Recover the amino acids of this structure.
């Protein structure tokens, strides 16, 4: 038995992140942020970095609002009012809300190789999806993506940290050393799983949300250039 063919046999479950792993997400957020900065520029005092202020507001709001487009939209509104000391006009607030509403109904843009990778890996082991964000919006993306049938379980969680992953592994009936997570975020998809003794594969995306950045860590992380390389790494046909 070759090393490649043995690797897939190490895992009872291969789990996938969704946003920026299976389909595009951060592109739309960053385009919306750029428009937000344009809207706020005429009303923001000199010396204020609009996007830094927005990201700081998002950090504060996560505890009460969680993740996703709806939380992002509320943070934009609050940041707009705070950084302009209430000078932002109603029309600008109306457009900010409309930007968020448009994001909620944007179609799913699958990343390259996704359907065939899920098909190939799914022939050899159980697949699950673990994504965080707004329940309604993430469910909509899952059901309209055409990928739902590949997964035995789809979990939309409030956070991705070791306790959440431990709870999910128990629910799935899998030990950490038989579990492999695939995702684009070192902070959310890789390090928490490895902290439990699980396996993880990092597939970087060309954009990373400011709040998902990780500057330093001590783990030896497996990294693939593309999701299309995953079947070869696992040793599946």
């Amino acid at each position: 038995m070759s090393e490649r063919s043995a690797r897939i046999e190490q895992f009872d479950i291969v789990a996938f992140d969704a946003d920026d792993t299976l389909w595009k997400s951060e592109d739309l957020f960053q385009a919306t942020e750029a428009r937000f900065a344009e809207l706020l520029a005429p009303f923001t005092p000199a010396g204020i970095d609009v996007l830094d202020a927005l990201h700081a507001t998002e950090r504060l709001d996560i505890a009460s609002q969680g993740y996703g487009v709806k939380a992002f939209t509320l943070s934009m509104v609050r940041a707009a009012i705070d950084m302009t000391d209430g000078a932002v006009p109603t029309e600008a607030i109306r457009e900010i809300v409309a930007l968020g509403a448009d994001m909620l109904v944007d179609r799913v843009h699958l990343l390259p190789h996704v359907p065939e990778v899920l098909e190939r890996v799914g022939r050899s082991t159980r697949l699950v999806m673990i994504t965080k964000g707004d329940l309604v919006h993430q469910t909509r993306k899952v059901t309209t993506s055409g990928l739902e049938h590949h997964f035995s379980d789809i979990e939309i969680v409030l956070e991705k940290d070791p306790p959440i992953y431990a709870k999910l592994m128990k629910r799935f009936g899998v030990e950490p050393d038989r579990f492999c997570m695939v995702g684009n975020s070192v902070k959310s998809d890789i390090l928490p799983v490895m902290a439990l003794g699980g396996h993880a594969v990092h597939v970087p995306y060309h954009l990373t949300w400011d709040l998902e950045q990780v500057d330093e860590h001590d783990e030896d992380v497996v990294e693939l250039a593309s999701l299309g390389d995953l079947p070869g790494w696992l040793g599946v046909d």
Notes: Residues 36 and 96 are 7 Å apart (CA to CA).
